[in-house]
Each structure stands twice: as C-alpha cells, then as structure tokens.
Design a protein that fits this description.
The complex is a heterodimer of chains A (about 425) and B (about 450). By secondary structure, chain A is an alpha+beta fold. Chain A is about 30% helix and about 10% strand. In chain A, a hairpin with a 2-residue loop joins strand 9 and strand 10. In chain A, helix 1 packs across helix 2 and helix 3 runs parallel beside helix 6. Chain B has one domain. Chain B is about 35% helix and about 10% strand. Chain B is globular, with a radius of gyration of 21 Å. The chains are: A alpha+beta (about 425), B alpha+beta (about 450).
Amino acid sequence: MKLFSHRKQPMHLGKYPMHKIRRVEHPTTHISSDVKRVPKRANMFMRAAKGDLGKKAQFERTNRIAKTPLSVALRNMSSTHDDIHDGPVAVDKAPITKDLREVAEHIKSMCIFLDADMVGICEIPEYAWYSHDDDGTAIEPYHKFAIVIVTDQGFETIDAASGDDWISNAQSQRAYLMGSTIACTVADYIRQLGYPARAHTATSSDVLHLPLTLLSGMGELSRIGELVLNPFLGPRFKTHIVTTDLPMQTDKPIDFGLQDFCNKCMKCANECPCNAISFGDKIMFNGYEMWKPDVEKCTLYRVTNQKGASCGRCMKMCPFNKEGLLVHRLALWVAINVPVLRRLLSKMDNWFKYGKRRVENKWWWDHENIEGKYIFSKSVNQRDLKQTLNSQSDSRYAVFPPDMQPPPVHDDPFPVDRKEGMRRRLRSSKPPNNS
Amino acid sequence: MRLFSNRRRNLHLGKYPMEKLKRVSKTTTFISDDVPRVPKRANFFNRAALGDLGVKAKSERPRFVGKLPFARSMGRVCQAHLPRHKGDPSTMQAPIPENLVKRSEHFKALAYFLNADVVGICEVPEYAWYSHDTDGTEIIPKHKFAIVILIDQGFETLDAASGDDWISNAQSFRAYMWGSNIACTLAEYIRELGYEAQAHTNLESDVLHNPLVMLAGLGELSRIGEVALNPFIGPRFKSSVVTTDLPLETDEPIDFGLQDFCSKCMKCAVECPCNAIPYGEKVMFNGYEMWKPDVAKCTAYRVTNSKGGGCGRCLKMCPFNKEGLVSHRIALWSAIKLPFMRRFLAWLDNKLAYGKRNPVKKWWWDLEIVNRKVTVPKDVNKRDIKNASEKPKAQRLGLYPAETIPDPDRKETEPIDRKTGMKLYEEARQKNAVRIAAKNRTAE
C-alpha cells in the first residue's frame, strides 16, 4: 500500500528513482582500451560442461543441470522462446519520431509497462560481443545499441533462503523467464517498426551482459566481482538485453560510491560458501579494474552443490539487498552521501541480523532429482550469519585471463591450470587509478 | 516506496489482504443448478470470426490483435507457450505433503513468486467446462481442481488511456502474456511432480473463467456483466487457470457488498461507448442471475473499433479501478462496511474526476498495421468523463442464451437474430421482476 501517488511521474522513469543517482562519463571502474573479446567456449559454465573443471562437474552440469522440478518447469518455459529471439525485419520503416530522446523514453516505458524493474540504454563497445559462437564461428558485431532490461529476483523468497539451498536455481530461472518474455517482446516490436533487433537472454546471448549493464548506468561493479550492483535492488537481479540499430538516446554510467563502500565491506567475501570472493584490493583483469573472484571455485561450487541447487549467497548477503522500505532508502541515502558512515552501515547490517533466513516464510519444497526420481532431499544448506571476519589471503585465489582460456573450438576437456592461475593472481597488475 | 515491512506476511497470502474479506459458502450471484454447458463455437469472438456478427466484424476479426504492432509482439510470445499448456505428467510421482492446506499454500506462494496478483483455488463445476472444442469434438471434464490466477493489467498505462484507444488490446495482452507465463509454469511444475495439469489461457482454454474466478473467491460478478470484479484491483485484470487432479484445499467465494454497490452505481453503463451495459436490473441468463450486457454489441464494437484496438473502457471507468493508495483503501473500507455510503462514493468518484485521461502517463505510439505496413491511424478515441446526471438513455439490449447458439461444429455463418434477442431480453427482465417480487413476498 503506497502513501503517495505516482500519477505525476512519466512512465519511462520506472519504479525506482534512478534519475536521482549521479551520472558520470566513464564507469567508476577503469576499463582499458585493450579488453580482449572471448569465445563462448570460455564461459565457465560451458567449460564445466566440456569437462574443463573435472569429471564430477561435467556430469553434474550435463546431467543434473535442472535437478529440481521447479527449475525444470521454468527452463522448459524459457526454451519456448528459443525461436523468437530474432526474426525477419519489416520491409518498410514505420513513421516514428526522429527525436532520439522520445524513442528512448518510448522503449523504456514499454519495458516498464511489461514489468521490467529498470531499463538503461548504451552503445555496444566491440569487446562486449563474444568473439566466437558455440560452434566456433566468428561473431561479427552486428548492432549498435543495447537496451538493458533488469528484473528483480524477488526479495521475499530470498529472505527465507540461505542462497545456496533448493530454491536458488529457480530464483534465477524465474528472473530469466520474465526477462526473456520482455526482451523477446520488445525485440519483435522493434523489428515490426522496420529496425533489426535481437533478444539476448540466459538461453542465448551473443553479448556479455556485464559491461553493458555497467555502461547503461544500471550499476557499478562490486566486490562480488563478476556482478554489477544496483543501488535499489543490490545484486538481486538478472539482466536481459535487446541489441538493435534503432537510433536512441543513450544513458551514462552511475556513481553511487560503491567502490568505496565495497572497499570497507567484506560481507560477501566472508559469507561466500566456497571462498571465491576476494578480501583484497581490485586488480586489472582482461582490461577491467575489478575485484576478481575465483571463477573456477565459484562455478564448481554452484555446479556440484549437493545440499541445494546452485548458489546466489553473495547477493542474498549483500547489505544492498533490502526490502526497499523508507528506512532502507534513508540508509541508502547515507551510504551514498556520507562516505564516513559507510563502514558503520556495513557493520550495522550485521548487528540488525540482515541476512539471517526468515524460515517461517519458506514456501518451496526441497525436491531433488536422483536418477530420474524426485525425492525430498536429505540435506540442505542452512546458513545464517557469520559472526567473525575470516579473511583469506590473495594467494588462495586463481585468475584465468584470456590467454589461459580454451580456443573457440575445443570439444575435449581443456583442463583449468589452477597453479598457473594462482601465480597469475599474484602477478596481476594494479589498476592505474587505484588511489 | 513502502513504510511497513511485509516480512511477517507469508508469501501465500499475496500482495493484497484478501484474507480479510468476508467469505461466503455460495457466490453472491445466484447460480442455479441447471447451467447449460456451451461449445467454444458460441464464444462471441469465434462467432465474429465465422461471420455471425456481420461482414465487417468477420473481416476485422483476424486483425483484431494484430493491427497493433505491440499487441502482435506479445501475441507471438503467447503463441510460443502453446506447446506447454498440456502434456503428460512424469511417470514417477514426487513425494508431496499430505496436508491439503500446506499444498494449496505452496502453489499459491509459487504463483505469487511468479508475480501473480491474486490467486485462489476452487473445485471446477461441470458447467465451467466448455461442452465442445472449436472443431466440434466433445470436451470431457477431466480435472477436479482449478488454481485461478489474476494478473493486473496495470494502473499507470490505463490511467492515460480512454480504454478504447490504440493501447487497449496491448494492455489485455500484457496481462494475458504474464498469465500464460504463470499458468504454463505451474502446469509444467505439477506435471513434473507427476500429476495431471493443464493451463488455460486466452489462446487456449477448455474452461470458462468467470465462474472459476467467482468460486475461487477472487471477485464478484459486476454490472459490467461478463466481468468479475476484485475489491483491490477492480475489473482491471485478466485471469488464467490451471486445472489439475492433484487434491488441494479450496477457497470460498467472497462478499464485499458489490451487488449492492453496482445496483447504486451506473458509471460503466453511462460510459460504455456502445451502450452494451444494462442500466436495469439483473436477469436470469443460462442459470446465472446477472447484469447481462449485450455481448453482440460489445464484441462488434471491440472488433470493428476503427479509432483504437479493442475496448476496455468499462474497466477503466469503474470506481474500483484505483492506484491503491492508502486513501483508496479507506474509501474501499467504507464501500464494504458502510452500505449507505455506496451511492455517495459512486458520486464522489465522478466529482473527483476519476476516469479522466492522465496525459503524463501516455507513452505509447498510436500505430496501426494496415496491409502489412505500420501506419499512423487517422483517428483515435479521446474520451474523458460524461456528465453523471445524464439520464439513462433508452436501451435496447439483446440476449443470446444457450438455446439460441449455433451447433458446436457449425463452420458456416449463423447470423445472430437481434429481434429475437431483444424479445428474449425483455421476457427475461419481466420474469426476473416477477421472481424478485415473489421472493420479497416470501421474505415478508
């Protein structure tokens, strides 16, 4: 129940006051001019499927990819969209406005109308395109603009979860299905207007979502690493992208002080069940300044988790993962505008026991598919809050830069060289603007 | 931005305090025990397609949705879901709790997790099943239970619309598309657990949704007629249904005083652009005692609307179509609890200019596909509010009960008989007046 009306706010501004967040010319994390494009084969989930992370991970990734009935249902639904990501473009261009701002506002409003939580638009840098498809064919960048659609994974259910129990995968799949629905609709609409457009979703994407999320002003890179964080939703969202040549006004990246906040807050690193998130400083990785997580550990844990389906505990535990009440907005305001209080806010988050499971709200069933039969799973990850900080040194993390990744086509396992990865981590260069 | 936390509210209770409404054992609309089942052929959109409503409606019906580029896009997504409506359950049944209440709470929570707006469960009466499919094959009622899902069409966009302009059908399809997402996911999930389940959406449904919406306690039938109305989202929703043989705990119908409210409020009837909603009393129709609109007029208007795509002006203008602010909840509370306020509230709604289009919220482009080309339409319906004191005009409504509908497998045109329809409406009106008088006498 709301107190104040939204009737005076134009549709394209959406549910959250993103227009009040400071905009900057460049993302708050440095991106160098020599980011290397990577093939889809280098994606860690793909590597797990090909056996690069070992037999166990390969088996789990290929045979038990959806081991709960709800994940299966949601995946089956998403796969019905396989053939509608792209399609023929109308021969004649529709008589629409030439005003780029109006076009951008129209498309954003449409996404909001379709229940997107946020939308941003950016130009696509070449490095955001995968270099090669699954089958090894080279991908030529084909569209100029990206519409980045953000869907919330939902606070209420994650509130009851540990992040790595039996609902985790379904939470992702839910957001993927919703996003795919929106992205496929918008792409089809743009094609009807006479401009090419393609949806890029969890089931099929020629672009890397992370740089586009950053460039379209949907968030900043966080300590979690391979994850952009939004001030209002925290890390609790999935992205879905429509690439197109429809000319539109673009957005700018945002700065809400997250680089400093994450410097002072270790909650995700401390709570990560597989110690994959760095406690240290940012490094340069393939041209990005970032807290680089140990992607091998993270993927292995998610793929082989036996007490749950996958893992999203970092986004559950992040202090920015909040219900969005007035009090949380006040805290957010302080986090953005009063840097000296950031460390305190991050501590307070633990004092208030945010991150503890609200087990009375648990509604899902802990089903697990064992050899073709669903049973109630015997074990489940029941984690709450850690009380003490238990930092790990940088030497325990591995990084796998492009030159250590498999070539575009490689059907046999291309084993991860962990030792070399750990050496690379220690040798990695510091970001230029790390002051 | 909210003030109070929902963390103490279990997910299965949903977004709206439906649990606080009065529950009743029978629907507030009288339903006799001899409701005839009808074939899909009798659905007025199907009748329009086969020419029963005339040449113009027949030629316009195929482009009814597709003439709006946006609605067409959503239609494609809905089409993609078609293969997931039905299917065989997996051969191994998963263990699930014995407790029926726990089961129902689980499926409701799941529907809310998937962004449903209101969810209820009921048994499916036989009359809620269509008798015959579009091809004339008989439909055998197969599942005992229905999970009924309501999807809000969205206040903000409707706020800017007249209800019969160039966004109307897209609004319907937005709700249909989410409804299809939710219902098909639920049905897939139940089948994956090893039980039979079928999704029923706007594209493909073996059940009539109206009785199920009522029986699952999601709304009462309103003056609009073929529309159930929910206290919190008014008539601004679409429904989708999952039928299953998995035993569940059912809900009871609700009573929030709507029958009395609608008897005192004429706003939808006054504002209907084709004068299809009755100003008068309820009549008996196919076993339901209801305000029966002229469905032929309504369908013909929607299908042949040349200044917009479709029409949902009744749901735009209804006083229950609100943003859901605290002030609206207070008004709702008095509408439910204080019967003498109802006439005043209906009057106040007009006085405060609710129903006027809000230009701040207009975001869509008026586009129409003509001969496979996207064009700017020549005209658009721009309606605001009519003077409430306007005298009810003479109304000539037609009634098309089960005995007048075409055979289930009839492929040819069977034009509606307006004259007989009007005669039947008049007879029904008189009969019901007698029935009510008799009922009142026995009450005395």
